[in-house]
Amino acid sequence: MGGDVKNGSTASAVAPQARTRRTRAAVIDAARRLFLERGYAATTIQAISELSDTPQPTVYRLFSSKLGILTAVLDISIAGDDEAVAMVDRPQVRALVTNPDPHDTLTRFTALVGGLMVRTAPVHRVLEEAARSDQDAAAFLAEIARQRHDGQRRITRSLARAGALRPGLTERHAADVVHALASPEVYRLLVTDRNWSGQRYEQWLSAILIDQLLSSTT
Fold it and tell me: What is the pLDDT along the chain (218 residues), one digit of tens a residue?
C-alpha cells in the first residue's frame, strides 16, 4: 500500500506541471502566430489569451508581460524545443568546438545557423520592431546579440587554438566576421528579400566563412 500511495503522490505532483507546460506551449504558439501576422504593437494580451484559450490572469502569471511572452517565443525558436538546456551546452554545438577539421567545423556551423535562422529570423524581426519603442525590448535585443557573439567566439577560439585562422586574423576579429555574416539581418536580406533557398544560403555562408577565416594551408 505504501507503494500505491507513493505512486499516487508522484502522479499528483506531475499532473499540474504537465498542465502548466501545455498551457505555456499553447500561449507561446498563439503568440508566435499573432506576432508574425500582426506585429508586436498590434498584438494584445487579450488576443493571445483568446487564441490560446487561456485566461488572461494565467497568461500574466506565466509570462508577466507581452515582452515576457515574446522572450519565451524567441527562446523556444532558438532552441527548437522547451528543454532547459542552453544552446552552448547542446551536443551539436559542443561538438563544433571539439571538431579537429576546421573546414568541417564551419560547414556544420553553417548548417546549424541555417536551421536556426528558419526558426528565429521572423521572430527576431518582431523583437526589432518592439525595441524601437520599448527600452526593455531594446535591452533584450542587445543581450541576444551579445549571446550570439559569445557563442560564435567559441567557434573562432577553437579555430585559433588549432592554428587554423588566416595569418593576422585574431580570434576576436574572426568572431566579428562571423557575427556580421551569420546574422539575422543578412539571412533576411538573402532568403526573405532576395528569395534565396535555404540550401543556397548555407552553401554561400560556408564558402565565405572558409574563405575569410581559414588559412590557405589549413
Answer: 445 555 555 555 557 788 889 999 999 999 999 999 999 999 999 999 999 999 999 999 999 999 999 999 999 998 776 666 666 677 888 889 899 999 999 999 999 999 999 999 999 999 999 999 999 999 999 999 999 999 999 999 999 999 999 999 999 999 999 999 999 999 999 999 999 999 999 999 999 999 999 998 77
DSSP 3-state of 50: helix
Instruction: Provide long-range contacts, Cβ within 8 A and 24+ apart, for 115-122.
Output: 115/80, 116/78, 117/184, 117/187, 117/191, 117/201, 118/198, 119/77, 119/78, 119/80, 120/74, 120/77, 120/78, 120/184, 121/184, 121/187, 121/188, 121/191, 121/192, 122/36
Which phi and psi (to 5°) does residue 46 adopt? -60, -45
Q: Which long-range contacts (CB under 8 A, 24 or more apart) does 30-33 make?
A: 30/54, 31/69, 31/70, 31/72, 31/73, 32/73, 32/77, 32/123
Instruction: Give, as one character, the DSSP assignment of residue 166.
Output: P
Q: 44 and 97: one domain?
A: no
Residue 142 CB neighbours (<10 A): 11
- 90 and 186 both lie in a single domain: yes
Q: Which residues span the domain enclosing 76?
A: 1-83
Q: Which of 54, 83, 112 is the last residue of a domain?
A: 83
